User: What shape does this take?
Amino acid sequence: MHEKTSSVRVRFAPSPTGSLHVGGARTALYNLLFARREKGTFILRIEDTDVERSREELSAQILSAMEWLGLDYDEGPYHQSKRYDLYRAAAERLIAGGKAYRAFETPEELDTERKAAEASGRSYRYSGAGRRIPPEESERRARAGEKHVVRLAMPAEPIVVEDLIRGRIEFPADALDDFILVRSDGHPLYHFSVCVDDVDMRITHVIRGDDHLANTPKHVALFRALGSPVPRFAHLGMILGTDKKKLSKRHGAAAVEEWRDAGILPEALFNFLALLGWAPGDDREILARGEIEREFSLERVGASPSVFDPEKLLWMNAQYIAAMPGEELLERSAPYAPSAVPERETALKAIELHRTRARTTIEMGRALSVYADDPAAYDADGMKKQVKAETPGLLQRLAARYEALPAGEWTPERLEAALREVAGEAGVSAGKLIHPTRLALTGTTVGAPLFDVVALLGKETALRRIGKFLEAIAPRSPA
RNA sequence: GGCCCCAUCGUCUAGUGGUUAGGACACGGCUCUUUCAAGGCCGCGGCACGGGUUCGAGUCCCGUUGGGGCCA
Assistant: This one.
């Protein structure tokens, strides 16, 4: 567990209405980072009061995505759906204290008022009629079972929010009307349950997406009505797709698990997300988690939105792959291998041969399988370009030369020398032999240095693959 | 429609009144090289616009434009 020496308490509060998006992940990450830096507590709260849209398995999905990314929380997960009593009690307290009131208008009446306002060109605002109902009457009508909502009595003064990232923001008093806290069916509404929970959980800092900024005056009014200290706010810029629109499924991989499945390492995504809106202040970009936790600060977080660039994520992932210890890289790439993985010693050597060539663990997994299974097919373009009339003859001579090579001399250097001798004797450039050989051994025209590959494959496998290739390129003999 | 937020290369960003505006991704070239990468070197490319304030604005203020959000 983490040392907690301050009273700083932050939370990440996702709605389980979809998988964890990178935007949400970044919000969670900044909360975590802030908590670590301040030696505070990071809380996870699932906002599942929207019964129609919330689903249990999505909640589990979010939890597993967070775990994978290393977004570990100190408290929770709390579920709002299990906290209805709290909201009900808070609503009653607010009514009793005159901070909120019952409103008995029917939806139809409100609709009429709205239409009238629009017709006369004014923007609609709730009349506040419920405010003027005497408490005894309100009480009596409620007890008689008359349908009503609960509304917050908004103050007449403007509300000022001191945002840690944006500075002072003033919202005019007439911009907000007495919004609904509790629906007529007794269901607490989003803004209400959020604030009641933040109070109950003693949240000191609310770090969340920009999309909640305009809701903040409501929350401030609610905290005050509840008689509780108002937390500090920090609103993060949105994460956008490459078309500058809010990142969504349309943009391709917007969910954390999609990146996991694409072979992105969690530490790379962690690093990448940390840098989407925050920078250490110097030119470092590859930062270990510990460094980020030590250096993160909200003062250095930018206010503007940022575009999620998959290209740069891929580059960063490649950096992590290049630097990761072989054993670990093997362990983490093996699950992505399309078929078998060679035995450990070979696999570790293969890792070293391919670590600068693989941007994802998927690519690394694919590279590993090449050393375990003979090619199932040969690259079509490569066949066209590299296989010439003289190719079978050359390959046969090479195979014969390799066959004769003593086991002790099966090294990249000797293998290269032997191939060059064969090419020299045949009066062709080495490339005429190198490229078809690569195709024969790996099925492709690209990859690690050929002689390292041949050496690693071993004599038996290399010769077998050349033989198979010769069969594949031999002209069909008439039956 | 009302209210609010945002604005440095295509993208992520450094920059907090005096900088040849720095770095990274991407892109182009060169190099290395059997291929593909990685690496190294070089290059392309930016302060949205208009007014102020100031001896001096990327930096401060106002407006415009453009993007975004919330409410309706």
In short: Chain A is about 45% helix and 10% strand. The mean pLDDT of chain A is 90. Residues 349 and 456 of chain A are 8 Å apart (CA to CA).
